[in-house]
TrEMBL record:
KW rRNA processing (keyword) present: no
PANTHER family: ASPARTYL AMINOPEPTIDASE
Keyword Zinc applies: yes
Gene Ontology cellular component terms for the protein in this record: fungal-type vacuole
Protein name: aspartyl aminopeptidase
Transmembrane segments: none
Biological process annotations from GO: proteolysis
Length: 509
């Protein structure tokens, strides 16, 4: 890349690419986010603990299932029932996941059984250099079973297409159950690798077989031995110490900057790690100054959920109690922490906290952040003629009259004011602010869904849906804009910086 392309927008995009390459699964995305939050002074807390020690003016994060995350910063002038500025995104992307019994073979090939996760464009997964990543549950040698991240960096799997000479169909719609199994190698090569050693192991096992009862077949029976060896190696344990795992396939081709002027990002998982990254960096940027929380009376919060691509109905999805439970606990936090206080939990000074949760919900605001559709020049007729978002032109406000998106006019007014006050990129010719775009789907097209409507219904909190524009959504390889990364981050930073000031000025009950 040319040395002249070091402006802040490009630097932010390069940092985002590092985040993408480190995050092939929701577990890795949360782990990557935690590293950034910890470096910025956020302290880990747990749901199972008391939060009585939380102090206004401080920053915290917690996880659920290691695949969903909440992080927040408490204003020094916080009072129970005050507003909470929230941004919600999701950590998961459409992918293929190893089946509980993945060991397959056919026509001399070792194959791996997979199931589809979400609504992926599955034909894009053919003829790609694939590997596996996820988490393994392993014995730690101390009598515990713990979670270890696994990311195999080399290509080990591939889903081959059928040669055109054998299939002249004009459309390619593979059967997801019979034609989507990756090949992992050749049976003959695996026999040559293990050969006599495997035979000897089998004989020894038959002679002195372990008689311990196993409710399920052993992992080595359910998965190819070499797959087990690779997972164990990357988890840092012996094969016999791997108790179970959750592994997905991912494309080993790394995210990169492309386009003839280095204005595009080519990557997997832009939906929705693009918005996860902007949310994390926006929160961190908003509290970078030591004085950022001194005059703040709100809580600044981000939440990144798992399982959005499959409907969010899980313990760690947006339809769970994760965010409501966190908000309920935060809404009643006392203004000043005093461990020696003997005040009633229901009354702290002059504040009656029996309705603090409801008060906070009524005054809070949630931005539902999920990537948006950019105009595709080859399919112009698929877009409503007056709503055609472009890449590198700013974050897109998503609107749907049928409430597939939760945006309404008060939310648009608020976001315009936030965008107007945002710090522009350092290399921008605009004196202040960041641009926004509008999107509605055509009346004769179906509309996607987000976490926005379900959370606004569950919380009763004002909500707006938005996202940065991209192409090829749900493909194994997507396209986004370099400059939109910083524009989205600065928009979110401005939201946290100015929400407390703006909240009381937009008067709608």
């Amino acid at each position: 890349m040319s040395s002249k392309l070091i402006p802040s927008s490009v630097a932010k995009a390069i940092d985002f690419i590092d985040f993408l390459n480190d995050s092939p699964t929701p577990y890795h995305a949360v782990h990557s986010a935690i590293r950034r939050l910890a470096a910025a002074g956020f302290t880990e807390i747990k749901e199972r603990d008391s939060w009585s020690s939380l102090i206004p003016g401080s920053k915290y994060y917690l996880t659920r299932n290691a695949s969903s995350l909440v992080a927040f910063a408490i204003g020094s002038k916080w009072k129970p029932g005050n507003p909470i500025a929230m941004i919600g995104a999701h950590t998961d992307s459409c992918c293929l996941r190893l089946k509980p019994v993945s060991k397959k073979s056919g026509a001399g090939f070792l194959q791996v059984g997979v199931e589809t996760y979400g609504g992926g464009i599955w034909h894009t997964w053919f003829d790609r250099d694939l590997s596996i990543a996820g988490r393994a549950m392993v014995r730690d040698g101390k009598g515990n079973i713990v979670s270890r991240l696994v990311k195999v960096d080399r290509p080990i799997l591939r889903i081959p297409t059928l040669a055109i000479h054998l299939d002249r169909k004009t459309s390619f719609e593979p059967n997801k159950e019979t034609e989507l199994f990756p090949i992992a190698g050749l049976v003959a090569a695996e026999l040559n690798r293990t050969g006599e050693e495997e035979d000897r192991k089998s004989e020894e096992e038959e002679e002195g077989k372990d008689q311990t009862f196993r409710p399920l077949k052993g992992m080595a029976e359910r998965h190819h031995p070499y797959v087990m060896e690779i997972i164990a190696e990357h988890a840092g344990v012996e094969v016999e110490d791997v108790v179970d795992f959750e592994m997905v396939l991912y494309d080993t081709q790394k995210a990169c900057i492309g386009g003839i002027n280095n204005e595009l990002i080519f990557s997997a998982r832009l939906d929705n790690l693009g918005m996860t990254y902007c949310a994390v960096e926006g929160l961190i940027g908003s509290v970078a100054s030591e004085s950022a929380l001194v005059e703040e009376s709100t809580i600044r919060l981000i939440t990144c959920f798992d399982h959005e691509e499959i409907g969010s109905t899980s313990a760690q999805g947006a339809a769970s109690n994760f965010l409501p439970a966190v908000v309920r606990r935060l809404a009643v936090l006392p203004s000043h922490h005093d461990s020696s206080s003997d005040k009633s939990y229901e009354k702290l000074g002059d504040v009656d906290i029996t309705t603090a949760y409801e008060q906070s919900l009524a005054t809070s605001f949630l931005i539902s952040a999920d990537m948006a559709h950019s105009i595709n020049p080859n399919y112009m007729d698929k877009y409503e003629s007056d709503h055609r978002p472009e890449m590198n032109k700013g974050t897109v406000i998503k609107i749907d009259a049928n409430q597939r998106y939760a945006t309404n006019s008060p939310g648009i007014v608020l976001l315009q004011e936030v965008a107007r006050r945002a710090k522009p990129p350092a290399d921008s010719t605009t004196p202040n602010g960041v641009p926004l775009q509008l999107f509605v789907v055509r009346n004769d097209s179906s509309c996607g869904s987000t976490i926005g409507p379900m959370l606004s219904a569950a919380l009763g909190t004002r909500t707006l849906d938005l996202g940065n524009p991209q192409l090829s959504m749900h493909s194994i390889r997507e396209t986004g804009g370099v400059y939109d990364v910083e524009l989205g981050t600065r928009l979110f930073e401005s939201f946290f910086d100015h929400f407390g000031e703006l909240e009381g000025k937009i008067l709608v009950d």
